[in-house]
Amino acid sequence: GDHRDLHRVDRRQRQMCIETGRELAVFAFDNRKPSVAERYFRRLLESDRTPDEEADAHFYLGVLAYGVEDLESAAGHWKIFLELEKSNTKRAEYVKGLFAEDKRLEK
To answer: What's the rounded Cα separation, in Å, for the pair 105 and 75?
Structure first.
């Protein structure tokens, strides 16, 4: 089982990297450094990712796009996000609320 343990360690390290990367991206996002966050989430979409990570990326990329009034991108990201986010989380409600309020997103 030696090599299986190695694989598990590998996976755990990758998970830690992802979590750290995500925390940094969210921190950058919260601190108005959108380019750092955007780069991270775009790279995540190009990599081998889980559905949760993909949902995460689309949520944040949608928020970033919405923040700069790029409504078409925001709507695109959020539609994918809502398909991936299986349960009705707070952020899913937030996005649905925006779609309901902001008719420009429906174009």
So the answer is: 6
